Amino acid sequence: MALKVLICGGGVAGPALAYWLARIGHQVVVVERFPVLRATGAQIDLRGHGIEAVKRMGLTDAVRQKLVDEAGISLIDTKGNVKATILANKSGKGAQSLTSEYEIMRGDLVRILYEATKDQVEYIFGRTVDGFTENDRDIVAYFSDGSSDTFDLLVGADGQGSHIRRNILPPGAPDAYHQLGVYVAYWFVPWVESDNNMCKAYLSPGGRLIMTRSHNKIETQVYFMLRSDSEEVRNIPKGSVGQQKHFWAQRFREAGWQADRFIKGMDTTDNWFCQNVVQIKTDTWHSGRVVLLGDAAHCPSPLSGMGTSSSLVGAYVLAGEIARDESLSQAFQTYSRTMRPFIDEVQQLNVGWIPWAIPNSQWAISLVHLIIELACFLRIPQLISWFSNDWGGDWKIPDYPELDVDRVDRVDRVDREEIQ
């Protein structure tokens, strides 16, 4: 039976699910709060099962055409001298290093998913789901423009700050936000000759880290990362953009390296983002005819490098279970049961390493430089990549023949020929 599905969120997870559901004949509507396609954002990567999910969508070539040429990551000192370099593992074997073989700008991936779905999926921009009511037969969504419509199910793919998640959590449920004590701002600055295809990471005393990545010869991505337990810092992302920029400029003005250049670039950037680095953990991924997807259900945090991949995998698994079971309740339960071991793996972050990765003192920074320099000299990062697998442990991505429309068509054609 064809379902009428409302997906809240037009980033990565929502359109990925829309791709699969529309492919098997469901009527899909994607509602996005931004007035146009939000094809912005910084560099993201695909790893492990996320790469496999893209392959199963048939979008590998489209993604490869937009990959960012990043050779690896270099740890530098305040003069820009390279202390150690970890190269990307582009052998096609083993695990990805800190730089993935599949580095891509978020906006490019969003556009790829939109182009792959726009002819079969209805996109509504500049609107949000303000509320909903449901019964045994359907769910009524109430939109920000005063309109409403009836659907068979509602998918919350609206990010780590999910409004849909807040509406389905039971009273007294634990806070879904797990603070990691790390905060980040990123923006783009004009490219200069010293910017190249190597990601650069610079540690500064005071729990500060500056990172740059150059995705083209027009602009360079800048990341300021701060380690802090201060309540004041925790509230910075809630302030205005002007307040955010003032805070980050003050905290990093004397940080060294090219901090002054990057702070100056805040004034002219069209891309600005500031956030608390958190994980989303909740026992509630679904309720009635509502189900959560991607960061809304299980944001693993940017530190894991698995946010995009887990969203793509989740979209595939959720679509597969919906295709396999006519009972939405059973499909949601199986989706949750299937995905949780994988999410448990990708969310396994040892926060104890954060003070060592972003030290407070200069002597600790010098120690980090020494350790990483020695590890690179002994080729330990390469050995780890060659003889290990990407995130997911023993978890295997399921196979859903129900989503292989071409296979189903071939089987039907053979059956008809045999009958004739």
Automatic annotation (TrEMBL):
Full protein name: FAD-binding domain-containing protein
Superkingdom, natural source: Eukaryota
A single GO molecular function term of this UniProt record: oxidoreductase activity
Pfam families per UniProt: FAD_binding_3
Keywords, comma-separated and alphabetical: FAD, Flavoprotein, Oxidoreductase
Chain ranges of the FAD-binding domain: 4-346
Keyword Oxidoreductase on entry: yes
Gene3D superfamilies assigned: D-Amino Acid Oxidase, subunit A, domain 2, FAD/NAD(P)-binding domain
Signal peptide (UniProt feature, chain positions): none
